[in-house]
Amino acid sequence: LPLTRKVQIIILTAASVALLSASVLQLVGQGLQARNAIRAQLSVMADLVGQNSLGALTFEDSEQANRVLSSLEAQSSVEAAAVFSSSGMELGGLSLRGEANIPTEWITLQRENDHSASRMIGFHTLELVQPIKFEDETIGTIFVRSNLRPVFKSIYRSMALTALALLIGTIIAFGLSSLLTPAIVRPIRTLSDLAR
User: Fold this and answer.
1) Three-state DSSP class for 98?
2) Which of 94, 196, 86 is closest to 143 using CA atoms?
3) Residue pLDDT, tens place only, 99-134
4) Which of 116, 135, 153, 186 has the smallest C-beta neighbourhood within 10 Å, fewest atoms?
């Protein structure tokens, strides 16, 4: 390969690696940020449903608990939810994607710790357990399972935009390398000719 082409390849490779690295880091950061936003949104939703379940928990009314949980049907990402009394009895449940398969052992453990907890199941599902409090006393627990479809939609959209940016960046790098290569190669050729 002529020296001019070698310099162009070096410039293009360096520019492409830099663009690709920055793009991957941006996508990972955006994915984590979106997942944390969904976790926070799920926590607020669980808190609202929990507060609306106070009457059902006080009177151990399963019908009212199910009615309150049905409000989560409007959320496309929610797959399952349940409300438990302070004794651990399930008062109401909601399953929007087949069988709910509620992780009762994990919920019991979190209820005993009396704090909010969340966990990822694979890459696509987020589960949250949160105490329901009334006047600083825990009177129940709410469980919500959500898929992360909105996060992945956002990531796929960003990946398409990133691919377009990479393509444009590579074209610009090629144009700049074509313009700058003669200025880089000319002094090297002059030194090479003088050395002969």
Assistant:
1) coil
2) 94
3) 668 999 999 999 888 889 999 988 889 999 999 999
4) 135
